């Protein structure tokens, strides 16, 4: 079993100066609600953000995020293997492991932790077919209100994951239908040759719409999102 605790409230407090341990615990228990203007809507990623010392361009230095009518760009702030942390200018934090969201912060409802039973099927997209395989995980979610009754821990999700060709050429569409503590369907679009996921729609809490994530290229802006059939 792989445990993941990636809320990373320190990122939300870093701009505040003298962050204390008490501050960190406070954000972990009472996440910040969504203020107006949380997602930036017009700023493109500067070219300098994409340059590496060797002159190569990193493929995943920013993500386009879309939550309902809100859109924004999250830049990479931390990376350790497949585990990465992304942050928008307005303070939304998304933690990913491979293509999957495993924690969020700065939203009305947040995913505080994700723990897998066995291997996440998304790590083996090339082996998936139209015959569903099972995958299970346990998540902890919290609301921004201070009422402890709104904090839910150990929510089990039993999921069925399958893959097949998408309507877009050279693209694999992975569907993950989950039941249990919550009912939803995640979608992941991957390159049919490399199986690298370049777009996804993922559940981030019952009180929120699916979070759409697009891997952005140099100079991309949120309005550059492509539309894929479901």
From TrEMBL:
Family annotation (SUPFAM superfamilies) = YmcC-like (SSF159270)
Q: Which domain of life is it from?
A: Bacteria
Kindly indicate whether the keyword Signal belongs to this entry: yes
Question: What is the residue range of the signal peptide feature?
Answer: 1-21
Query: Which is an annotated Pfam family here?
Result: YjbF
Keywords recorded for this protein, A-Z: Signal
The family database entries (InterPro entries) matched by this protein are listed as: GfcB, YmcC_sf
**Xref: PROSITE patterns:** PROKAR_LIPOPROTEIN (PS51257)
Q: What is this protein called?
A: Group 4 capsule polysaccharide lipoprotein gfcB, YjbF
């Amino acid at each position: 079993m792989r445990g993941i605790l990636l809320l990373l409230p320190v990122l939300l407090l870093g701009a505040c100066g003298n962050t204390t341990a008490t501050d960190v615990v406070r954000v972990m228990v009472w996440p910040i609600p969504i203020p107006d203007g949380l997602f930036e809507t017009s700023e493109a990623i500067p070219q300098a953000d994409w340059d590496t010392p060797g002159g190569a361009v990193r493929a995943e230095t920013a993500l386009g995020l879309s939550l309902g009518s809100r859109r924004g760009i999250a830049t990479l702030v931390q990376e350790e293997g497949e585990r990465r942390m992304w942050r928008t200018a307005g303070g939304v934090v998304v933690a990913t492991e491979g293509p999957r969201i495993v924690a969020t912060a700065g939203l009305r409802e947040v995913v505080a932790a994700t723990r897998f039973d066995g291997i996440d099927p998304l790590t083996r997209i090339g082996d998936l077919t139209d015959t569903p395989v099972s995958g299970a995980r346990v998540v902890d979610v919290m609301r921004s209100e201070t009422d402890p009754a709104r904090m839910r821990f150990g929510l089990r999700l039993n999921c069925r994951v399958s893959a097949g060709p998408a309507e877009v050429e050279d693209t694999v569409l992975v569907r993950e239908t989950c039941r249990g503590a919550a009912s939803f369907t995640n979608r992941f679009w991957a390159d049919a040759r490399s199986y690298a996921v370049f777009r996804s729609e993922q559940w981030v809490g019952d009180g929120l719409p699916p979070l759409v994530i697009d891997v952005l290229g140099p100079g991309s802006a949120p309005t550059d999102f492509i539309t894929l059939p479901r």
